[in-house]
Amino acid sequence: FQMKSENKKTIWNTEEVPEGSEFDDTWDPREKPEYEISFKQHVGTEDVFFGMTGKDPSTACCEDIVIKIKLPETKYSDITLDIQDKVLDLRTPKNKLLLHLPYPVNSKEGRARFLSEEEILEVTLRVSRKLDLINFS
């Protein structure tokens, strides 16, 4: 069994490497912070009272992913956040979080805010979905 490669010097194909594995760093001693993932959808009266748009409470109908990350004893200036289509990479001097996201997101439309009193970073990311019968807008 021999696989063909574009470059003779490569020892694996790009299909063999899982997406987001370039961010994995098993030797990093920083601890993983606690986090919580929730989903958010925008509903109006046509959804609540009439059910006109066909939305349901499942994650398939949600437009945003909200990730709340607890970062005790961290200042806003110490946070480095990198968001790719399917990966969130957060680094501080004490913590490191590599999170593979449940859905692809639009990394350019996200927003983050640091709640200093609660020591929580709240990241809101817009889910990037293909149009279908439920997600048609």
TrEMBL record:
Residue ranges annotated for the PIH1D1/2/3 CS-like domain, each copy included: 32-127
Official protein name in the record: PIHD3 protein
GO molecular function: dynein intermediate chain binding; protein-folding chaperone binding
Homology family: Belongs to the PIH1 family.
Single GO cellular component term: cytoplasm
Region of interest (Disordered), residue spans: 1-30
UniProt feature, compositional bias: Acidic residues: 16-26
Listed GO biological process terms: axonemal dynein complex assembly; flagellated sperm motility
Source species: Rhodinocichla rosea
PANTHER family attached to this UniProt entry: DYNEIN AXONEMAL ASSEMBLY FACTOR 6, TWISTER
